[in-house]
Amino acid sequence: MKHLAALLGALLLSLCAVSCTPQGEADLVVLITNGTIRKAAEAAVAEFHKEHPDVSVQIVTTPGKDYYVKSLAMLAGRARVDLLWLGQGFSSFSERGALLDLNPLMAADPGFSLKEYLPAVVNWYRTGSHLYGIPYGIDVQVIAYNEELFDAAKRPYPTADATIGELIDAARKLTDIDPQTGRTRVAGLGFVDLDSRYHGLRLLDLERGVFALNTPEARRWLEENIELIDRERVLQRGSDMESMDRLTAFLNQQVAMTSVTSWELAELRNRAPFRWNIAPIPYGIHGKRLGWASSGAFSISRDSRHPELAWQLLKHLTGPAFQRHLFEITIPSRPALYGEYRAASPRPPENLEALFVMLDHMDPNPGLAVYPEVVSEWNYWKERALLKKSTIPEALSEAERHINRILERHRKVYPGPSDNAREEVHP
Amino acid sequence: MQHRPLREIRDPRVRRLTALRRTLLWLGLLAFAITMVYPFLWMLGTSVKTTDPALLLAEGSRSSIFPTGGNLLENLFPKVWHVENYIQVFREIPYARYFLNSLLVALSVTAGQLITSSMAAYAFSRFEFRGRDFWFFCYLMTLMVPTTVTLIPTFILLSRLGLIDTYFALIAPGIFSAYGTFMLRQFFLGIPRDLEEAAAIDGCGPFRIYWSVILPLSTPALATLGIFTFLGNWQNLLGPLVKINRDELKTLPLGILNFVDLNQANWPLLMAASLISILPIIVLFLVGQRFFVSGIRLGGVKG
Amino acid sequence: MKVRPWITLSFLAPNLVGFLLFTLGPVFASLCLAFFSWDLFSPPKFVGLDNFREIVSFAMTPAGGIEPVNPRFWLYLGNTLFLLLGLPFSIFGSLALACVLNRKIFGCHFFRLLFFIPSIVSGVGIYLLWKWIFQPDYGLLNAALLQIGIDGPRWLESTFWAKPALMLMGFWGSVGGMNVVLFLAALQNINPELYEAAEMDGAPGWRKFWHITWPMVSPTTFFILIMGIIGGFQGGFDAAFVMTRGGPAGSTTTLSYYIYETGFQFFYMGRASAASWVLFLMVMVGTWLNWKFTSKKVHY
Predict the structure, then answer these.
(1) For chain A, how many structural domains are there in total?
(2) Is residue A226 domain-shared with residue A268, that is, in the same domain?
(3) How distant is the Cα of C156 from the closest Cα of chain A, in angstroms?
(4) Measured between CB atoms, which of B56, B68, B165 is closest to A23?
(5) Are residues B150 and B71 part of one domain?
(6) A vs B: CB pairs below 8 A
(7) Is residue C57 within 8 angstroms of chain B, CB to CB?
């Protein structure tokens, strides 16, 4: 017992010695998530070092699901962060003034051309006359379908110009319910719910800054959802986009069609034991094709001590070499690299053209700082409607009331101009 | 209420019945234990599944990760057991380093907790001083505030002190958690004072009493606190997440998440890494049993 | 006992100094934060009781009635309290298990380990596994129920059954854990002469349990109950976040989930702090009630 105490005491003392040695501070700190992006970032930093060998760079990686806890803690505590990766949470940071405007840095750098990047996506990072981030990769959503299940049911595969009605019909034919137990063996569709985009609907009317779903069309959309989920059992409700088990039902061949984002294609390629392919999101009921989209970008934090150096590194982090490393998980935001991207896809290639079709029909989440709160509120009322805990009109009007209140309150605190709204890509 | 007199229990028929009942209960216990341990078996099975896409196609649906259907054993274990995953874990991430970090931090926090909170608990339970109950209430209070909201203030504090990215940041806040003081104070309150009074009469000072009387009597409680503290620290994720930037200082829960990409995970390697990480706790549990089966009696004062 | 102040100080100081700096400091900071509005990037702004008002107060509806300003908060409170109902089951289960494992049955050490394992395996993988066990159409649980002829509910997809599902998972994860270890220790400390005396008097099993075992383990039960209440109010976040994201229509969102969401997803740090202080008050009330109610029954 005494020996144990002595050992522990020695351990603690040596510990103090170890932890008391001061660390040299790096000139630049880059904050990213774990995974493939890490190797790409290391390569980009290596390239940066060729031009600036005296600048030390520290790459801080953090698990993806806790990325916002980490980044918020660092930024709130004014810790040294120069460059940070941003995904869907971009506007939460930019609207609250956490990021540096890149326009002056770009103006001072004649060798850099913003035109190399897809303009539609770059616009997502503009607020008024400021630019707060440079995107390196684009993610779009497509429909993935199980060819073998389609073959077994002798149905034609979904095509690029299918409409949502045709897709749902195909899903009906593919749904297989066990007559004895009533359990679904195969569900035709595996979405969270039939996206409002398929009905040409949007959650918010960004110009007026209000909730936009308290309309008869939205009511019909919800009713169709309840039909598909409850009565016909065609739609198997799945997990949301951030859940790691999202593709499980599809991979287990219990769902014939599901929506996948471009980053999930790698998992499908690696783990699907059946033939599958992808198709663009079908035309909605008003003849418009709208698909969810997002992008990955890097920004410079407002408190960066070496903005010019950070800008130089930023160029590498959104440069062609970096984008080539990430072909597996995201479409490069440089149209010049599309050819290479196509060539780099595995053999046999799935229908990559579906991804490029969706590039012309991107409908990202609104760039509002308060959007997470709005979505949380909306999900609550949508769930209540879909589970029939509230009637549809009631759910929609309550959602409208609460969401407008949230938007109102946010406008009082951040009375910025309404050019927070992302430009619409299509008429 | 009917009760069986003692001699009836010696009747052989009754004994056979009791034996039968006992066997049935044992079987029931076994069944219950197996259902309890199913998720662990799943972890084991997943950890030996292949991650190579080519092999996945060959091995078919038995290598899929999550249970597919009603058949329990259908894809619990794969056709081919890829034990090399366990070696792969060490190759892909600096697992040994993370393991040692976790060990160092957890042991240090446990030692610090045991020493400092037993002393403070002794003071709270035996000494009378002004503000004693107020301060104890402060201790209790900190247990009731969720760590989510203290995360950022703690970060700011450590950042201002320049302690981010050091072992100190991982160890020091853990030592001073109020949990140990609370638990030991309750335990000390339950120890009768006769022994201490006897020792005091013999001329022992408070420190001597603490060291030679109270501590030996509290071995079960100290062992329990030790295991609790070690366990909590071993699995702590949010603390190291916020306080550590450099890869060399990361602890296991943080390091294991290297196998989790933004929206996907390398399940077999993740499960292998997790299984290795619970080995020390199992060892601790098996070893710590001895301290609980010690049969120390609290009523040790006779004449 | 009365001792000189410097002795008290020397016992207290090692812990107290660190406690003040690293534990009480941040807690106090979060208390102050509750009266500010802070979005983490701009300096905090003082708003007085506004945060609390946003959370717990009531207001007039357009229709003239009274409704809570934040109805979701009360829903989440209800969820938290409901999930706490699993605590007695867990404690009784642990005690029963400890009583069984205390006897010299064949393989009791092996069983102890088997039952302990669920409490140390945790993490995303296990939560997702349980999510698939609870899957209504393909999951193991409903398939097993079907064998006995029961048509299982929609579990995590139903607002009614989501919480019992989480409670079931919580029971699995806690029944064989440290509580059993604590109870075993307490059981070992019971003088066997008491049982022998009871046997001589011909007392049946349940009588022995209720009059000897139960009172003798009551300090441990009390401790476990208090820690369970404290933990229960603060817990339920990891599972809900991974498995249901707060559940169908907010039915698995607990107060700790609400605090995380408000602070780290909606960026209202001040309001999150205020909510955690409201939570603190409730835990205090719960603990105090527990104390009052059971202190008579705790035998030292």
Answers:
(1) 2
(2) yes
(3) 11
(4) B165
(5) no
(6) 121
(7) no
What is the dihedral sign for C-alpha A320, A323, A327, A331? negative
| B52 and B131 inside one domain | no
Residue C143 within a domain = yes
**Least confident stretch, A47-61, A192-206, C285-299:** C285-299
- B195 with B48, same domain? no
| Cα radius of gyration (chain C) | 24
Q: Are residues C55 and C96 in the same domain?
A: no
Range of the domain at C12: 5-69
How buried is C150 (Cβ within 10 angstroms: 0-12 exposed, 13-18 middle, 19+ buried)?
exposed
Question: A176: which DSSP letter?
Answer: E
CATH of the domain at B238: 1.10.3720.10
Chains that contact B by 3+ CB pairs under 8 Å?
A, C
Q: Considering the domain boundaries, does residue B22 fall inside one?
A: yes
Q: Nearest CA to B183 among B240, B217, B229, B239?
A: B229
Q: Where are the beta strands (DSSP E) in B153-257?
A: none
* pLDDT digit string, tens, across residues B251-303: 999 999 999 887 788 899 999 999 999 999 998 888 877 666 554 333 333 22
Which of A271, A272, A11 minimizes the C-alpha distance to A149? A272
Domain end residue (candidates: B51, B83, B115): B83
* Owning domain of residue B28: 6-83
Q: Confidence band (pLDDT; 50, 70, 90) for A18?
A: low
Which of A19, A34, A77 minimises the CB distance to B258? A34
- Give A274's contacts in chain B (Cβ within 8 Å): none
- Residue numbers in C near B128 (CB within 8 A): 1-2
User: Percent of chain B, pLDDT > 90?
Assistant: 34
Decide if C137 and A243 are in contact by the 8 Å CB cutoff. Answer: no
Co-location of A309 and A323 in the same domain: yes
Determine, for residues C72 and A245 on separate chains, whether the beta-carbon distance falls below 8 Å. no
Chain A 365-384, CB below 8 Å of chain C: which residues?
A: 369-370, 372-373, 376, 380, 383-384
**Domain-embedded: residue A60:** yes
Convert the pLDDT of each residue in B199-228 to its tens digit: 888 877 778 888 887 878 888 788 888 888
Q: Please give the residue range of the domain that contains residue A302.
A: 25-138+293-355
User: What CATH code is carried by the domain that includes residue A96?
Assistant: 3.40.190.10
Which string of DSSP letters, residue by residue, matches B84-126? THHHHHHHHS-HHHHHHHHHHHHHHHHHHHHHHHHHHHHHHHH
Beta-strand pair A134-146/A291-300: antiparallel
Q: How many domains does chain C contain in total?
A: 2
- Beta-carbon neighbour count of residue B93 at 10 Å? 20
Number of compact structural domains in chain B? 2
Query: ipTM of the predicted structure?
Result: 0.88
Residue B25: predicted pLDDT:
83
- Chain C residue numbers with beta carbons less than 8 Å from the beta carbon of B210 are 11
Which chain A residues in 295-324 lie under 8 Å from chain B, judged by CB atoms? none
Residues A122-156 have pLDDT tens digits of 999 998 899 999 999 999 999 999 999 999 999 99
| C201 and C272 share one domain | yes
Asked if pLDDT for residue A422 goes beyond 50, the answer is no
Using the Cβ of A210 and the Cβ atoms of chain B, whether some distance falls under 8 Å is answered with no
Q: Could you tell me the CATH number of the domain that includes residue C137?
A: 1.10.3720.10
Structure-block tokens of residue A345: 């896809």
**Per residue, what are the HEC states of A121-135?**
HHHCCEECCEECCEE
> A13 or B142: whose pLDDT is higher?
B142
User: Residue A25 pLDDT > 80, yes or no?
Assistant: no
- Residues ≥6 apart with Cβ < 8 Å to C155: C134, C135, C136, C139, C141, C142, C161, C162, C165
Do the Cβ atoms of B64 and A251 come within 8 Å?
Answer: yes
Name the nearest CA neighbour of A364 among A179, A183, A197: A197
Question: Cβ C223–B228 below 8 Å, yes or no?
Answer: no
pTM: 0.89
Comparing A158-162, A196-200, A317-321, A412-416, the range with the smallest average pLDDT is A412-416
- Is the pLDDT score of A21 beyond 90? no
Cβ–Cβ gap A58/B53 under 8 Å: no
Chain B neighbours among A 18-37 (CB < 8 Å)?
18-20, 23, 29, 33-37
Contacts of B246 in chain A (CB under 8 A): 23, 58, 60
